[in-house]
Design brief:
By secondary structure, this protein is of the alpha/beta class. It is built from 6 helices and 7 strands. A 7-stranded mixed beta sheet has the order 1-3-4-2-5-6-7, sandwiched between helices. Guanosine-5'-diphosphate binds next to α1.
Length: about 200
Amino acid sequence: GLCQQATFLISAAKVDQCPDDQGYEVAFAGRSNAGKSSALNTLTHASLARTSKTPGRTQLLNFFRLDEERRLVDLPGYGYAKVPIPLKLHWQKHLEAYLGSRESLRGLMLMMDIRHPLTEFDRMMLDWSGASGMPMHILLTKADKLAFGAAKTTLLKVQQEIRKGWGDHVSIQLFSAPKRIGVEDAQTVLGHWLGL
Ligand code: GDP
């Protein structure tokens, strides 16, 4: 598919360094270690996110080009204790500026480790998407780490809590990169947001 031609475009530290705000953009968010890189790579059949982890490309926003008018954006997962507080505040400010101003942004993919769902970071992203009405799709990652019944129970619980707290602009599914659980479902949502 289209995603096979995904290539690294630019690493932006601020909103004014972003590519032209036209076409379709989908952003990927997740607390560090939630499985965001693995999900991005699995969904695009590329090793995009390794690029994001190389030094010098750990800026605020990493843009990947799919075609002339479509991009994926890797947002920082600032859950690391290692990240200094001033840097976290810098990210938070510019992340909010990006999320609040980006016309081409069509949806937000949020990765949550199924064993640690709804972290403070996740709640912040949910609050923002609720306030702005931006569609959000949640991947409960590492679903292979739980037995199927337990994974399903967690899915229903998290789904219920999200419906109560944030409403129904949010969809959610199980996901596993190595076991390829939910890959097609996630690609369907992505394709829809990208106007494919
Ligand atoms: P990121 O920091 O959010 O980009 O997370 P990574 O994608 O780098 O994943 C963090 C760790 O979790 C790595 O050791 C991955 O191999 C592992 N991981 C990611 N996704 C899955 C998954 O679906 N299942 C399992 N079992 N491990 C995963």
